[in-house]
Predict the 3D structure of the following.
Amino acid sequence: MTMKAEEQLVEQFHKLYYSNGSRTWSGNTKWLGYNVLKCPLDLWIYQEIIFENKPDIIIEAGTMGGGTSLFLASMCDAIGNGTVISIDLQNTNHTDELPKHPRLIYVSGDSISDKTIEYINMYTYPNKKVMVILDTDHRKEHVLKELNLYSKLITKDQYLIVEDTNLNHPNPAGFEGPMEAIDEFLKENKDFVIDESKNKFYLTFNPNGYLKKLTWILNVIKHHVDGIIFYFFFFIFIASSEKLIYYERYIYSN
Ligand SMILES: C[S@@+](CC[C@H](N)C(=O)[O-])C[C@H]1O[C@@H](n2cnc3c(N)ncnc32)[C@H](O)[C@@H]1O
C-alpha cells in the first residue's frame, strides 16, 4: 500500500470512529464502569508512558466523569508509584459521582487560575517527576495558556500531553484548537519535542500531541547540531594540520 493510500485509509477510519461518538468514545468507552472520553489506543500509549517514565505526579486538567482519572490511578497502582491530581471547573458540583481511589486527588477550579497553579505547586515541589495531560477547553488561546503554565512543571524525560489535537486534523472544529496551540508553543519552547513514535497505532485522538521534555544534553544536541558538527570537523582540521606541520618540521630537520 502506498503512503498516500495508507494515510487516506487511516483518515477515513478516524472520521468514522470520531463521528460516531455515541457508539465509540463519547460516553460509551469505560474504565471500571466510568466514562472515559478517549480512544483506547491512546489509553494504551498512556500505560506505556507511565510504565516507562514512572512519574510521581500526574496532573490531569479536565476531569469530567473521572474515568480517565481512575484509569491513571489504576496504572499508578499497577507500577506501585504515583499520585493523580485531576482538575475541573465542575469538580465540586458532582463530587459524589466521581470515582474514588487512594492515589487520586480532585481539585475544583480553573486550570489557568493562580489559585489552581499555587495548589498544584504544593504537590510538584521539590524533585518530583511530573507528567501533565491537558484536556479542558480546547480553544487555541486557552490551550496555549495551559501549555505555558504547565510546561514549567514538567521534569526531564516526562510528557506533556495535549489532548484532542485531532480537532481540525482531520475533524473540522470551526475554531483554532490544540494543534494550533502546540505549533505556537513550540516556536518559543525549544526544550520540548513532539514524540512522533506515539502515533504508532495509526489512530490517535492526539496526533503530534505527545510532547516530551528533553534532557539538557539532548536539548544541546538537537538545537546545536550544526555547531557541533562544525566544531568537530574544525577540530579534526586543526589537529591534522598541526600534525602536518609537525611532520614537515621533522622532515626538514632530518
Ligand atoms: C473533554 S472533557 C475532559 C474529559 C476527561 N479528561 C476524560 O478523559 O474523560 C473537558 C472538561 O474540562 C472542563 N473544563 C473546561 N474548561 C475548563 C477550565 N478552564 N478549567 C478547568 N476545567 C475546565 C470541563 O468542565 C470538562 O469537564
Notes: Residues 36-38, 62-65, 67-68, 87-90, 110-111, 135-137 surround S-adenosylmethionine (CB under 6 Å). The beta strands are 30-31, 34-35, 57-61, 83-88, 104-108, 130-134, 159-162, 192-194, 210-213. The mean pLDDT is 91. Helices lie at 3-19, 40-53, 67-79, 114-124, 140-150, 178-188, 216-223, 225-253.
